[in-house]
Amino acid sequence: xxxxxxxxxxxxxxxxxxxxxxxxxxxxxxxxxxxxxxxxxxxxxxxxxxxxxxxxxxxxxxxxxxxxxxxxxxxxxxxxxxxxxxxxxxxxxxxxxxxxxxxxxxxxx
Length: 109
Description:
The chain is 27% helix and 16% strand.
């Protein structure tokens, strides 16, 4: 028997963890995260326009490109004068730029 919360192991006959009071389970719970991996993100575009952000997100989602729009909060963009930065994984930079060029968000080379 195992405690899913604190990972303690118990012999048969125990049903609650003596440390935290959690109900025990029959099998050891799997590790949720064994390794942390970092992703190199590259800025490919920035904008002040909320409409552009929503449109670009839908297109990139459809293309399966992983992205983050850093600073996309309407409060930051509207009142603070900040802009949202589109960041994509380094291996997706070229494809993301091609898409933005096709949509006339970036100039074509």
